[in-house]
Design a protein that fits this description.
The complex is a heterodimer of chains A (223) and B (318).
Chain A (H helix, E strand, L loop, with lengths): L4 H11 L4 H15 L3 H15 L10 H9 L2 H10 L6 H17 L8 H20 L5 H23 L6 H12 L6 H6 L2 H28 L1
Helix pairs in contact in A: 1-2, 2-3, 5-7, 6-7, 6-8, 6-11, 7-8, 8-11
Chain B lengths: L3 H20 L7 H17 L5 H17 L12 H11 L4 H17 L4 E2 L2 E2 L6 H21 L5 H13 L5 H15 L1 H12 L5 H19 L2 H20 L4 H16 L6 H4 L1 H5 L7 H24 L4
Helix pairs in contact in B: 1-2, 1-7, 2-3, 5-6, 9-11, 10-11, 10-12, 10-15, 11-12, 12-15
């Protein structure tokens, strides 16, 4: 029971909006101490795991390319392209990206996306550009709201697309866990049963994106 | 043989450059803090493999103390002016998209090929790390394409990368720290305790309640652990198999597949999934730390209801 105190630290820390780095480190130390590891072993466990997890940070290697292109006007260009597209609205731009992300993820092409390489330099400026054309004096909170939605579409698209691909990590994990418990399942059937939720995700989130357009339009005509 | 160590060297150079450029930037009042933070991370990338674990633990503590007490702040950087960018965008047009799209395309191509390259009887790339090495390779090649095309000053990529790293700030390190926390949870046996607790609470034989306990439990535990992969074994072995499959004769395939997707609904709602929910907040310069989570919660809750209904209506014999 006592080892759960780390989870309590996490919940309270995030609820009170403390610095997440501090919250996570404290949760690690509390968990280690409660689990009887002692302060020295807790620190070495944390240090070892942190060093072994450096691969998680590899995504940042893309920053020099993105920065270089931003310096040369990539965001401005992305915005420009959308503004010249007939009928492109924020909701429709994001809806198209949702479909693209879900379909490519379902084909196993998970790396065709991501926040540093796709959302910040391309998708967010496109969604914002479309709104700039349709809404007179777009205010900063609305801009931020649009950008938050651009990030959300990337997440929802990949989460509810990738499981349709049979060789993705989660399918292999499911198979492994069940096999150890003596239950045999086929990856192809696991992938097939990801399809209903994938369709529901597209319908639910797609509808929300189109409603976002509607809300912005009514706000624009108020002004 | 190319292993992850090669990518860590590159990351060490990147964060090291961010530290040095910060140190020399008199215009940034937080330059010492930023330089310390990126410098410590750089040491971890370059030397982490060789340092004793206690030293690596010390690096974490030092980075967290620096970030918490002083904060890593955005720098003004040597970026181009808005007018220059508009002019450059006009000049290059759609060709600007080429190096950006080259990253994912080359990653895919490299991912499919470099694993098969054998030189002198040895694999060129460590087989287990092909995907990550492919990504590293793609970023280097795309950078080369961008440099040849745009011909900027040689230091531009590192100067720009530093500007972006400063803008993201401490959030850049959070996903890695969370992965480490997951390992500590596992070492202390958090998962086992949770599954014992969960199994004790649910009345056996009540179908809807059991399904709800499973799907909502997957989402909640994922929110706590930050990762559906960590929650799945706990919930599947604690509730899914004993109550739904064995007890109620449910279909293991349907229950497992949709159970995992219920966990993904939890991922959309938790700051613990930092790489998905907090890193973009920093990358997109949003004021509200939970802005991305707020945009996702309605979809996540609706899909959790859909998943519960799918299991309840389709997984059991009628």
């Amino acid at each position: 029971m006592l080892v759960l105190s780390g989870l309590l630290v996490v919940v309270l820390g995030f609820a009170f909006r403390l610095n997440p780095l501090l919250v996570v480190t404290c949760a690690g130390i509390v968990t280690g101490l409660a689990g009887g590891l002692g302060i020295f072993r807790t620190l070495t466990t944390l240090g070892h795991a942190f060093t072994e997890s450096r691969y998680v940070a590899i995504v940042w290697l893309v920053l020099p390319v993105i920065g270089l292109l931003e310096r040369a006007g990539l965001k401005e260009r992305a915005r420009d392209v959308v503004m010249r597209m007939q009928g492109a609205t924020t909701g429709r731009v994001l809806l198209a990206y949702l479909a693209l992300r879900q379909i490519t993820a379902a084909l196993g092409l998970v790396s065709l996306g991501g926040h540093p390489q796709m959302v910040r330099p391309l998708i967010a400026p496109m969604a914002e550009g479309a709104a700039e054309r349709d809404v007179a004096d777009l205010d900063e909170p609305t801009r931020q709201h649009i950008r938050a939605h651009a990030a959300a579409v990337d997440n929802i698209g990949v989460f509810f697309g990738e499981d349709i691909f049979i060789a993705i990590g989660s399918i292999l994990l499911i198979k492994g866990v069940l096999e150890q418990a003596g239950v045999r399942v086929l990856p192809t059937e696991l992938a097939l049963w990801a399809v209903p939720t994938a369709i529901a995700a597209f319908v639910v989130h797609g509808t929300r994106l189109l409603l976002l357009d509607r809300r912005m339009k009514s706000r624009g005509s108020d002004a | 043989m190319i292993t992850l160590e090669f990518l860590y060297r590159l990351m060490g150079i990147l964060t090291g450059a961010a530290a040095i450029i910060n140190l020399r930037d008199a215009s940034n009042p937080k330059r010492l803090t930023n330089a310390t933070f990126w410098g410590l991370w750089s040491v971890s990338f370059l030397a982490g493999t060789y340092l004793p674990d206690i030293a690596n633990g010390g690096i974490i503590l030092a980075m967290v103390v620096v970030a918490t007490l002083r904060g890593v702040k955005a720098s003004s950087g040597d970026s181009t002016t808005p007018a220059e960018r508009v002019a450059s965008a006009k000049r290059w047009g759609n060709r600007l998209f080429l190096p950006a799209l080259a990253v994912p395309v080359i990653t895919l191509l490299a991912n499919a090929t470099i694993g098969h390259i054998v030189i002198g009887g040895r694999a060129l790339v460590e087989p287990k790390q092909v995907t990550l090495v492919a990504l590293g390779f793609a970023t280097l090649l795309s950078l080369a394409i961008g440099m040849l095309m745009l011909k900027p000053p040689l230091r531009a990529p590192l100067v720009e990368a530093r500007r972006l790293l400063d803008a993201v700030g401490w959030a850049a390190m959070l996903p890695q720290l969370l992965a480490a926390l997951g390992a500590v949870f596992a070492a202390a046996g958090v998962g086992k305790v949770v599954s014992t607790l969960a199994a004790g609470w649910i009345p056996a034989g009540a179908p809807l309640l059991s399904v709800l306990a499973f799907t909502v439990g997957m989402a909640l535990l994922t929110m706590l652990m930050g990762n559906a992969f960590a929650a799945f074994p706990v919930m599947m072995l604690g509730i899914g198999l004993p109550l739904l499959v064995t007890g109620l004769h449910g279909d293991a395939t349907i229950i497992a597949a949709i159970g995992m997707l219920s966990g993904f609904c939890g991922t959309l709602m938790t700051p613990m999934a930092a790489n998905f929910n907090l890193v973009p907040v920093a990358l997109l310069e949003l004021d509200d730390r939970y802005a991305v989570i707020r945009a996702q919660v309605p979809t996540a809750l609706l899909l959790l209801a859909v998943n519960t209904a799918l299991i309840y209506f389709l997984a059991f014999p009628h």
